[in-house]
Each structure stands twice: as C-alpha cells, then as structure tokens.
Design goal:
By secondary structure, the chain is mainly β. The chain has strands spanning about 5-10, 15-20, 25-30.
Amino acid sequence: MTHYIGVLDGADNVWGIRVPDLPGCHGGGASPE
C-alpha cells in the first residue's frame, strides 16, 4: 500500500490540501476534516 503526505493549509472556514508528489492533486473545503 502506498501512502502520500499532504500539506494542509487554511484558517477559519477556508482550507486546502495539496500533495507535492502528485502534481495537480489538490482539494479544498470549509473545515480541515
């Protein structure tokens, strides 16, 4: 099984995550969960 590390960044109700090993792989939402 492969595991990747994501970088979580945000504040209040604006959050995003990016995965440096996977170009173009990112997401966002209203909470860090």
